[in-house]
Each structure stands twice: as C-alpha cells, then as structure tokens.
Write a structure and sequence with these properties.
This protein is an alpha+beta fold. It has one domain. It is 39% helix and 15% strand. The chain contains 3 helices and 6 strands. The strands form 2 sheets. Strands 1-4-5 form a 3-stranded antiparallel β-sheet, covered by helices on one side. The chain has a 3-stranded antiparallel β-sheet with strand order 2-3-6, with helices on one face. The radius of gyration is 13 Å and the shape is globular.
Length: 123
C-alpha cells in the first residue's frame, strides 16, 4: 500500500487561504517505500482543496484529505506528472488516508471534470 512518509507541517499566510510548507513532504505511490514518489519541497504554497466556497459545509478546503490535496496541488503547479496521473494519485492518497468513499469519489470526479481549468492556468 502507498504511504505518506513524513508529517505535514504548514504555516498559514496572511491571506487566510494559503499555507506554506515548513519542511518537505513525501508520498510514495502504489507501495510503501516505492521509488515512485512525490516530494513536495519546503516553501511550497498550497490552498489545500480548491473547493468553491458554496460547498464548504460538506467539503471544506481542509479535512482528512488535506495531505492528498497538497500532493495534488504540487503536481498541478509543477506538471511533474500528467493531469490524469495527478488525479489518480490524489484519489489513491485519499484512500490511503481513510477518507470516506463518498468524499473520495466526489473530489476525484470534481478534479476530473473541472481540473483542466487549474491545470491550464498553471502551465
């Protein structure tokens, strides 16, 4: 099973929506200690899950899926993987974190349907 091998340490910025990583953060894809991994560097900025505010009552920007959202943001900003891979890694990481199935499916479908907007914005 995949794994997060380091804790997530972040500090909020003054804008109230953006957080900066205090140290690097790694996720191993597919299996624990896999060489296939994503390392988000110290200093990376994230807004966690980019959920429209109207939906925050059911899917707030930060939740059990927070670590997976940081990985997803990093891939979307750097394009170090394809968009399809980024979305699959996001889904897998949420499952690893034990996010409820309805949230995993809802958030994965949202990024598959609408993620192209953020993907092209960051390219």
């Amino acid at each position: 099973m995949s794994s997060f091998t380091s804790p997530l340490s972040v500090t909020p910025l003054d804008d109230g929506r953006t957080w900066v990583l205090n140290r690097s953060f790694t996720y191993h894809i597919c299996t624990k200690c896999s060489r296939n991994k994503i390392t988000v560097p110290k200093g990376f900025c994230t807004d966690f899950a980019s959920v429209p505010q109207i939906f925050w009552n059911i899917l707030p920007p930060w939740g059990k899926y927070g670590k997976s959202a940081v990985i997803h943001d990093y891939i979307y900003q750097t394009h170090c993987r394809t968009r399809k891979e980024a979305d699959a890694i996001f889904k897998e990481a949420m499952e690893v974190l034990g996010v409820p199935t309805w949230q995993v499916i809802s958030m994965w479908l949202a990024v598959r349907l609408f993620g192209w907007l953020a993907w092209h914005k960051s390219s």
